[in-house]
Design goal:
- By secondary structure, the protein is mainly α.
- The chain has one domain: Orthogonal Bundle (di-copper center containing domain from catechol oxidase), CATH 1.10.1280.10.
- The protein has 11 helices and 7 strands.
- The longest helix has 19 residues.
- The structure holds CU-O-CU linkage.
């Protein structure tokens, strides 16, 4: 049975290692929740859809006009009152609550249906990619509406790209002393040892780094990054291997079910989620005794407090689209492309978000599967994709 939208009626604080438990609960909706509808997509005179284009961060940061808009959108989002579901605080809370078991799963649709006792967790399963796609979809629409620019699109941090000089570095537009005002994109809780010119290493392991065992040359990092992408994306042919295992009513993927400090994860993550975790850990404060929670990016509880989170996830989301275009070579079944799950349990799974009008919206996984229907696309960077695909 699919997990349906939560009423968000029950909400518990989220424990952290240092400090008091965090309050990640969301403001109550002003109106009754509405059902998702596909956005109306503008068209050219000849009828071609005009999609928002998400471009690589390492390219966009050379465009002062884009950086100015991007920073302004976050500045305005951060200035909204705490009661506004569009505020940066509440955008963070959406991730913190759904990703750290503040809510309960529910059984039947509608805001009054009964809940199961199981806590809601959107990581570690097939909900990972669809949930984060819809999270970014609304986040982007909110940013766009705050600067009255319907064409505004998030950048993507193209860390799998080993071809372009700056692609796998922490994008400079998020860092201090960038030159163009970018204060709203900055976050102090990042690992400064990994600032440029360091390359994001997809085989990164903080324990090994602490033991001095991760001193690789750029050449080695690039080579290993291609191997990681090949192993976690190209060779993951089935939906289950790429997106993750089933998540249905009663599935308990809460962190409490495993020994997290021993490196265990609950549920069954797909290859895409595993790669994504590494970039989180590499970006946050790690191996710092004052920050045992590895904030911000190194811990799902805090991660969405860092604006870089959304550009990281933009690349994860892009790679889902790329994965579907990889011809299935391994089974030699001709040109078959990889496919998402087709079961009702997957397609009818529901999520709850707030949109740019502050309305609570109920979305189904089936609505998330085609990014063009959601009105956006990614810049084609197949030259670098193909380096790890083949
Ligand atoms: Cu919900 Cu990158 O995590």
């Amino acid at each position: 049975e699919p997990v349906l939208a939560s009423s968000l009626g029950f909400c518990k604080p989220v424990p952290v290692l240092k400090g008091a438990p965090l309050h990640c609960c969301l403001p109550a909706p002003r109106r009754f929740p509405i059902r998702f509808r596909f956005p109306r997509i503008p068209r050219t005179f000849s009828g071609r859809p005009i999609l928002r284009e998400r471009k690589p961060a390492h390219i966009l940061q050379n465009d002062p006009e884009y950086v100015r808009k991007y920073n302004l959108a976050y500045a305005r989002m951060k200035a909204l009152p705490d009661t506004d579901p569009r505020s940066f605080l509440n955008q963070w809370r959406v991730h913190c609550s759904f990703c750290n078991e503040a809510f309960r799963q529910r059984k039947t649709p509608g805001p009054l249906g009964p809940e199961t006792g199981v806590l809601l967790q959107v990581h570690y399963s097939w909900t990972f990619l669809p949930w984060h796609r819809m999270y970014l979809y609304y986040h982007e629409r909110i940013l766009a509406s705050l600067i009255n620019d319907p064409t505004f699109a998030l950048p993507f941090w193209n860390w799998d790209n080993q071809l372009d000089q700056d692609a796998a570095k922490m994008p400079a537009m998020f860092l201090p002393n960038f030159g163009i005002p970018n204060a709203a994109l900055f976050d102090e809780f990042r690992n400064s040892n990994h600032f440029p010119p360091k390359l994001l290493y997809l085989g990164y392991n903080s324990k090994l780094e602490a033991e001095g065992q991760q001193n690789l040359t750029d050449q080695q990092i690039k080579y290993e990054n291609l191997c990681v992408m090949y192993n976690q994306v190209t060779t993951k042919i089935s939906a289950r291997d790429f997106l993750g295992g089933p998540y249905v009513v009663g599935t308990d993927n809460s962190a409490a079910t495993v020994n997290v400090s021993a490196g265990e994860t609950p549920g069954e993550s797909g290859g895409m989620e595993s790669v994504h975790n590494v970039a989180h850990e590499w970006t946050g404060l790690i191996n710092d005794p004052d920050h045992p929670d590895n904030e911000d990016m190194g811990n799902f509880i805090y991660a969405a407090r860092d604006p870089i989170f959304y550009t990281h996830h933009s690349n994860v989301d892009r790679l889902w689209d790329v994965w579907k275009t990889i011809p299935d070579k391994v089974t030699k079944s001709g040109d078959r492309k990889r496919m998402d799950f087709m079961s009702r349990d997957f397609l009818d799974t529901e999520f709850t978000f707030f949109d740019e009008n502050q309305d609570m919206v109920i979305v189904k996984v089936r609505d998330s599967l085609d990014s063009s229907k959601l009105g956006y696309k990614y810049t084609d960077v197949s030259e670098s994709d193909n380096m790890w695909i083949y």
